[in-house]
């Protein structure tokens, strides 16, 4: 619902604003469209209009400044701590900030765990979200499509802390036999190898990825659904007239039309997964060993590492280390979201 | 000519003219349909499962009237009983204060985008930044407020700092929904108002926003429901207290998500009850706000023809 980046109607906005300006001026004797000369001749702007316009524009500027301020403040806080870092921030896999005179921390492990768990979640969520979007727009009975869509949106309404508790205490134990089977039969593949935490406890990237998939499902579905809904009826009718089956109609009209929107929606989902905090903080078991490319490893993502340490942020120097990690996360999600947006921006037909 | 056509139309299409759908295509169609239905069913499973877990484990706890009237003050971690009204207070107040700050900002940004911005560069930049803000992880918002409010300005951890971080998460949601609502207000209404000599700002305040009000309020309620469940900001910006603290600006303040994280390491039966009781309480509050949203959108909807 809040990811409506595809539903833009700049054309309408523009005409509305343009029509508004000349009409607001008290010039009843001049029905001719105002020329540039007439614009110059109207210096009188009501103070109310000026104040209101200022407030509205100011709020717009505020949002732009805010994003800049987020990056700037995180950077200002991070730099002094980065200077105290005894190892390479980008390539080290250590993380010890307890002794401020000997801080050794790097983000490589956090980055790997974050990206692998999000990618795994995306891998599960993408096909299911595609199926749901098709179901809601093409297959479900018209009358039931809205309540069904509401059910999917409810998934987004559940707080992430509840997903986290459910994932660790309820889903984790259920997944344990599956995990054990995977490690014993497919263990020769590094991805399914025995991890560095106990599978019985369930605090693995495997569990976390599945919970993340559930959490990003409604986001991907909502945006994809909106794009699929905009498939030109003429395309669909043309395909039907040629004798296509339901699936052929979908494959030849809906999917090609909505592909870019679907990819963009998935990237929005990825952005959400990268930044998900509390569910992963609860689920992932802490471990002293480095990430070994297995889904059955534990570890910490950027967000969960910060959240775990947050209550003990007392020394600005050690807090700065976590803020530096937060800055990397901010840049990462910024890039993913900007990419998602630019994919859709190139498609005028979605508007 | 005409006669032959009529004759053709009356005759059934036979194989050379009309081929029935081949088995392979039928199978493909059937498989695709089955998969699409299956995808929806798969998504319903975790929803039902999560809600069942929360209700089954939490419902017995909230039946006790003490749950709503008492705090956990003075109780040991293994002592059962007590309640969470201190956390409910914190969640509601932090959410509402966040709403008080977010609604005007969000409203003005949406008004700017729809009524003033047009296709200007600033409007494009603002739209882009609102999209980016939508995707800012809650932990990053919390770290930003931490470095601004606590490190730079030197204030302590408080409920108000949490509200500020929630503003960052709530504003983009309000902008998006309000923008959508303002766009569907018909231009004829604006033009009629201008024709009567009403200034633009008054047209917006008295005509455009009231017309879109039900949609805007619905969006605000949904946004509130969303931010109240956020955990990362309370974890970074507020300290937990098992007792009531009415002061938003000073001292530790509980909220439902914070209470759940604080009790997470409590292995006793009392800890179990507190966690799942708080979980169902949070779900109930969120459901309440969602219901309010529906009620508002029904009752306040503009009376159109």
TrEMBL record, chain A:
Membrane topology qualifier: Multi-pass membrane protein
Segments of this protein annotated with the region Disordered: 1-45
Gene3D superfamilies: MetI-like
Ranges annotated as biased composition (Basic and acidic residues): 1-17
GO terms for cellular component: plasma membrane
Entry's localization field: Cell membrane
Superkingdom of the source species: Bacteria
Role played: Part of the binding-protein-dependent transport system for phosphate; probably responsible for the translocation of the substrate across the membrane.
Similarity annotation: Belongs to the binding-protein-dependent transport system permease family. CysTW subfamily.
Record's protein name: Phosphate transport system permease protein
Organism this protein belongs to: Saccharothrix coeruleofusca
UniProtKB/TrEMBL annotation, chain B:
GO CC, alphabetical: plasma membrane
Subcellular location: Cell membrane
Alphabetized Gene3D superfamilies for the sequence: MetI-like
Topology relative to the membrane: Multi-pass membrane protein
PROSITE patterns assigned to the protein according to its UniProt record, in alphabetical order: ABC_TM1
Positions of transmembrane segments: 34-55, 87-114, 126-149, 155-175, 207-228, 275-301
Statement: the UniProt record of this protein carries the keyword Nucleotidyltransferase: no
Thylakoid listed as a keyword: no
Keywords carried by this UniProt record: Cell membrane, Membrane, Phosphate transport, Transmembrane, Transmembrane helix, Transport
UniProt-listed GO biological process terms: phosphate ion transmembrane transport
Primary location group: membrane
GO MF term set: phosphate transmembrane transporter activity
InterPro entries: MetI-like (IPR000515), MetI-like_sf (IPR035906), Phosphate_PstA (IPR005672), Phosphate_transprt_permease (IPR051408)
Pfam families: BPD_transp_1 (PF00528)
ABC transmembrane type-1 domain sequence ranges: 88-297
Family statement drawn from the similarity comment of this UniProt entry: Belongs to the binding-protein-dependent transport system permease family. CysTW subfamily.
Free-text function comment from the UniProt entry: Part of the binding-protein-dependent transport system for phosphate; probably responsible for the translocation of the substrate across the membrane.
Protein name according to UniProt: Phosphate transport system permease protein PstA
Taxonomic path: Bacteria, Bacillati, Actinomycetota, Actinomycetes, Pseudonocardiales
